[in-house]
Amino acid sequence: MSDAAWHDVAADWQISAGNSIPVRIGEQELVLCNASGTLHALKNHCTHMGAPLDGGRITDTGIIVCPFHKARFNLVDGTAVSGKYETIPTYPVKVENGRVLIQA
Ligand code: FES
């Protein structure tokens, strides 16, 4: 169990299904993703060549597709599902009173 704090990063209406948006917590750059109504947060850093993942397509099966060279990562655990790329760190997400909170 992490001791990291929860951070308010967005209103829930700002992240619609199938989309991914950049969010910042201090010096950390994360990407917030909505896969069919379930929210996920990952480090905003593709482990192929380091490009940001925000704007990447989100599939109904919980995959983010990097907008640069189309590497695919599982949103739940950050593992690569195409290519042998390193796992991307993931962060817990919850919604309270219409606000999206990330533990980081
Ligand atoms: S930088 Fe993401 S697939 Fe190449």
Report, as a whole number of angstroms, the end-to-end distance: 12 Å
User: What top-tier CATH class fits best?
Assistant: Mainly Beta
Integer average pLDDT: 96
Number of strands: 10
Shape: globular
Helix content: under 10%
How many separate structural domains? 1
Looking at the overall shape, the CATH architecture is 3-layer Sandwich
Order of helices and strands: EEEEEEEEEE
Name every ligand kind in the structure. Answer: FE2/S2 (inorganic) cluster
Q: What share of residues are in beta strands?
A: 35-45%
**Unreliable sequence segments:** none
Using the coordinates shown, work out and report the CATH topology: Rieske Iron-sulfur Protein
Could you explain how this protein is built, in words?
The chain has a single domain (6-103), classed as Rieske Iron-sulfur Protein (3-layer Sandwich), CATH 2.102.10. A hairpin with a 6-residue loop joins strand 6 (63-65) and strand 7. Helix content is 0%, strand content 43%. The chain is built from no helices and ten strands. The radius of gyration is 13 Å and the shape is globular. The mean pLDDT is 96. With 104 residues, the protein is an all-beta fold. It has a four-stranded antiparallel β-sheet with strand order 2-3-4-8, with no helix packed on it. The chain has a three-stranded antiparallel β-sheet with strand order 1-10-9, with no helix packed on it. The structure holds FE2/S2 (inorganic) cluster. FE2/S2 (inorganic) cluster (FES) binds next to loops. FE2/S2 (inorganic) cluster binds next to loops.
